[in-house]
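Working notes for the structural subgroup meeting. M.R. asked for a predicted model of this chain before we commit to crystallization trials. I am recording the input and output together here so anyone reviewing the notebook later can reproduce the run.

Input as submitted:
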Amino acid sequence: MQPSRILRAAHGEKPNITGFDMAKLRKATGTPRYDPWERAEAWRYTGRFTRANRFKNSLPGLGTAIVAFTAYCAYEHFFMKEEHHGEAHH
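Returned structure, recorded in token form:
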């Protein structure tokens, strides 16, 4: 460890020479009480654009496709028989 770092650690952090304190700035600013863009951004999260509606409409034919594929697999399993006549024909 360098000697200057040892001295700084022993005496605490060196104050900023400009007098600017970042902790005071963060404490003073905080969260704004009024957001001027709040009304302009509100439409993104209401009505048709809510998170649930965005995901619900993302794959519109998936439910129909799953039902059709399941029905086809059931039909193939129960009604289509494989015909084995002993030897394989080439």
